From TrEMBL:
CDD domains: MATE_NorM_like. One of its GO terms (molecular function) is xenobiotic transmembrane transporter activity. Pfam families: MatE (PF01554). The chain crosses the membrane at residues 21-44, 50-72, 93-116, 136-153, 165-189, 247-270, 282-301, 322-342, 354-373, 394-416, 422-440. Keywords: Antiport, Cell membrane, Ion transport, Membrane, Transmembrane, Transmembrane helix, Transport. It comes from the Bacteria. This is Multidrug-efflux transporter. It is found in: Cell membrane. The lineage of its organism: Bacteria, Pseudomonadati, Bacteroidota, Sphingobacteriia, Sphingobacteriales.
Length: 451
């Protein structure tokens, strides 16, 4: 059985993995920025400042995914038009996407500066943690603008199947972020120690340089010449903007419903204590690393699905999508085993505080189980996005996380007194719900296409 299954899907495994691996690395870059911030602060600045990073990352990720979701609206459209050999339309979509993403980044910055920075005083967090969190959040808010420019050109290149370039930019950008973060936090080469504020400044510098390099590459490379000849800075029209928004806005909501659930969980945990919040940050950071790797596989599934959809090759579309499900299940099984077997070792990456390590180690066992559901739900979203099906999946994510996940977590963790474990049980059940409903939706939509 297993041999015949492997033989049937082998060509799709190799194609999907070849496309996915560079995206996995570049997607991982977003999370590695926050992981590096947590590691540097945890070792050089202490538990309270690590809790501040946890609080900010929980709030900022909600803002960040709104922007990332909007930028993802470009990828399936470009993949579909490339499948139809409509190269000029790809360039025009890029023009519109760039303007939309810049405007979105400015709106998100204003929201953080005038909303989140003021609201952070009123969500029941420790005053000492809040004092460290504010300057860090301020730098991250500014970094949204260059990040969205980088995302525009990254999603365009990946939609055309050029996935390695963003990977290399992300690798070098993250190395720079780590080096600068250590220098600023510790205070080296005559620079005064900046604490948690230092990792915010290093992130801003890193994202600015990544935006410059990626935009120059796409606009100057011969590989994109046929696509970018119709690109005009400032070119925007209603029809194309609406096409991008009709995919990007629901995708932004999909990500925001999930991430906001984890942000809400962090806030609930913050009312329990700073040690629990720091432990949550350690465990969720590790889980988010594997999630972003899974989202890279999902992005490849979006591209392959969109390309086959544009070609009207629906049989290959379904087989490629099923192969993506197989790949993500194997990958997430491996990471689940890693989390469970190394649960007492991995937290030392972040801190030497034994109180934090003990709680984080237990949370990693729970994370090991929800890995499977987290991976399959994100691949399900990616496949459906490739065929332009985004509205019903958005409703599914809302129900899974905010009708089921968070209320159940609050009931188990706060009302019934299970603490941080109970909150994580609620999140796990929300992921299971999303994974199941999205797979049912995938089966229904792809069978209709083939029929």
């Amino acid at each position: 059985m297993w041999k015949s299954l492997y033989t049937r899907y082998k060509p799709y495994y190799s194609d999907n993995l070849r496309l996915a691996m560079p995206i996995v690395v570049s997607q991982l870059g977003h999370t590695l920025v926050h992981l590096a911030d947590s590691v540097i602060v945890g070792h050089f600045a202490g538990t309270v400042q690590l809790a501040a990073v946890s609080l900010v990352n929980s709030l900022f990720m909600l803002i960040l995914v709104l922007g990332l979701g909007i930028s993802y609206g470009l990828t399936p459209l470009v993949a579909q038009e490339n499948g139809r050999k409509n190269f000029d339309e790809c360039g025009k979509l890029l023009s519109n996407s760039l303007i939309i993403n810049i405007l979105m980044s400015i709106l998100l910055y204003i929201f953080v500066h005038f909303g989140t920075l003021l609201a952070i005083d009123h969500i029941g967090q420790s005053p000492e943690v809040v004092a460290y969190a504010k300057p860090y959040l301020g730098y991250l808010a500014i970094s949204i603008v260059p990040l969205m420019i980088f995302q525009t050109f990254k999603q365009f290149a990946e939609g055309l199947g050029f996935t390695k370039q963003a990977m290399f930019v992300s690798i070098w950008g993250n190395l720079l972020n780590v080096i600068l973060g250590i220098i600023f936090v510790k205070g080296m080469f005559g620079i005064e120690p900046m604490g948690v504020k230092g990792v915010g400044l290093s992130t801003l510098i890193d994202r600015t340089l990544m935006a410059i390099v990626m935009s120059i590459y796409v606009l100057r490379s011969k590989y994109f010449a046929a696509y970018t000849r119709s690109f005009r800075l400032g070119l925007i029209d209603k029809v194309r903007s609406l096409k991008i928004a009709k995919i990007g806005a629901p995708v932004a909501l999909q990500y925001s419903f999930e991430i906001s659930a984890f942000s809400g969980a962090a806030i609930l945990i913050g009312t329990i204590g700073a040690v629990e919040q720091a432990a949550h940050q350690v465990a969720i950071n590790l889980a988010s690393v594997t999630y972003m790797m899974a989202s890279g596989i999902a992005s490849a599934a979006t591209i392959k699905t969109g390309n086959n959809f544009g070609k009207k090759n629906f049989t290959d579309l379904r087989k490629s999508a099923i192969a993506s499900y197989h790949v993500i299940l194997m990958f997430m099984c491996a990471t689940a085993l890693l989390f469970i077997l190394a649960n007492n070792i991995l937290p030392y990456i972040y801190t030497e505080d034994m109180a934090v390590i003990n709680i984080a180690a237990h949370l990693l066992i729970i994370a090991g189980f929800f890995q499977l559901f987290d991976g399959t739900q994100v691949v399900g979203l990616g496949v459906l996005r490739g065929i332009g099906d985004v509205n019903i999946p958005t409703l599914i994510t809302f129900i899974a996380y905010w009708v089921i996940g968070i209320p159940l977590g609050y009931l188990l963790g706060i009302v019934l007194g299970l603490g941080v474990d109970g909150i994580w049980y609620g999140l796990t059940f929300g992921l299971l719900t999303a994974s199941t409903l999205l797979f049912i939706r995938f089966q229904k939509k792809t069978r209709v296409l083939i029929a």
